[in-house]
Amino acid sequence: MTATEPAASDAIAADTSPRPAPGATPPRTPLVARAAAELVGAAALVATVVGSGIQATQLTDDVALQLLANSTATVFGLGVLIVLLGPVSGAHFNPAVTLAEWWTARRGGGGVTGRELAVYVPSQVVGAVAGAVLADAMFGEPLVKWSTHDRSTGNLLLGEVVATAGLILLIFGLARTDRLRFAPVAVASYIGAAYWFTSSTSFANPAVTIGRAFTDTFAGIAPASVPAFIGMQLVGAVVGLALVAVIFMRGRTTSE
User: Cα(171)–Cα(73) distance, rounded to whole angstroms?
Assistant: First the structure.
């Protein structure tokens, strides 16, 4: 049976299948598999961020080299995770992205359903915390030690708005232009660049932010700084969606 000519029974099943991510093929895997993919992906992402940060500080005292090592590992790790898990869950690993997709679905576009939102977000948060604990365990650090790295100044919060808005603009812009096949390279490259051009080093992810509060290492963030960071990330997501609506506005064909 071809994909272009589904049977009637397939059409009925499609009516109840999960909505696709923007511009993506409708997922065919069970929701539990997608939740597992989001949990494992978020865990691996945070383990990469935290672990590479610990490794970098053990190898050099040069802060610029530490950030370079941390950002490079994150770029490669994130790209691999998107390639591997994207076909399963869409490779969100990020509540801001999932919330943005849910909003677009409510507005008639492609995205996750409310049920998927309720499963994805907790999976991402649990995975992020597990990833931080795993990284600490691998490097002999206390499994859970609240970070003392304060990140509460206004310029850092502005950096999170910019970082998250850019991420949402990129992902949904690729979807609007039917170029999501470039997401592994494009998203990983953007995050790597945003490490350097944003004052906050581009968390741009509420789940990752929560996970990084559990480790008092290079990549950590003090728990007291977490609520404001998440708030600014959600603001950034709104700004990003607004930019998508303006820049990638669907025009109407006119005749002269």
Answer: 21
Per the listing, tokens 């397939």 go with 10
| Position 129, amino acid | V
CA dist., res. 76 & res. 64, Å (int): 19
Structural domain span for residue 64? 27-247
In a domain, 151, yes or no: yes
Cα separation, 27 vs 29, in Å, equals: 6
The span from the CA of 176 to the CA of 183, in Å, is: 12
Closest CA to 145 of 220, 238, 208: 220
* Lowest-pLDDT choice from 102-106, 161-165, 243-247: 102-106
On whether residue 54 sits in a domain, the answer given is: yes
Residue 191 identity: I
Listed residue (197, 141, 139) closest to 167, CA to CA? 197
Number of structural domains in the chain: 1
CATH label of the domain that carries residue 203 = 1.20.1080.10
pTM of the complete model: 0.86
pLDDT tens-digit series, residues 132-158: 999 999 999 999 999 999 999 999 999
**pLDDT class of 235 with cuts at 50, 70, 90:** very high
Q: Is residue 162 part of a domain?
A: yes
pLDDT per residue as tens digits for the range 15-68: 444 444 444 444 568 999 999 999 999 999 999 999 999 999 999 999 999 999
Closest CA to 52 of 125, 144, 134: 134
Please indicate, yes or no, if residue 4 is contained in any of the structural domains.
Answer: no
For 28, other C-beta atoms within 10 Å of its C-beta total 10
